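## retry 2 of 3
previous attempt timed out at serialization; input unchanged, resubmitting
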Amino acid sequence: MHAAILALTLSFGALQSPQPAVARPDFSGEWTLDNRPVPGAKGAQGAMLGSSFVATQDAKVLTLKITANGRLFTAAYNLDGSGSKIVSPTPGQPDEVIISHATWEGDRLVIKTVTTETQDGKPYQMETRRVMWIDSRGVLLLERSGTPVDVVPTSTSAYRRVKK
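## retry succeeded, writing output
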């Protein structure tokens, strides 16, 4: 009986012990596309942030400076989950302002965006989920998924930090 009470007390204490905080990665730096195969990658390889980009990060905001279609675009994501206005470049169309929400899930930054698009004159809702993290090799991975799947196919982009 005493052993059962002791075991119960110990297990209850273990449930209440604080868990160590998960270290969140600092994405700051200059990154270049890595076209080598990514172990465990989902979907096709992509270049979601162009061939290279520069990231700066503090406790509140992750800012990405991306060159796409010969233009520099800046995307600043609030890291507290509040809405971030981002200009999305689309070749052959006017730039679109979208709202994204970035939150941490452990050591991964999850960026969710919902937009209304039009195809064949009919509106539809498009949802994207992008997950960013730095793997054990120091490679920044960006995995994208969403709906409708035929418009937002799953893909993974890999970037290596430029050493200076």
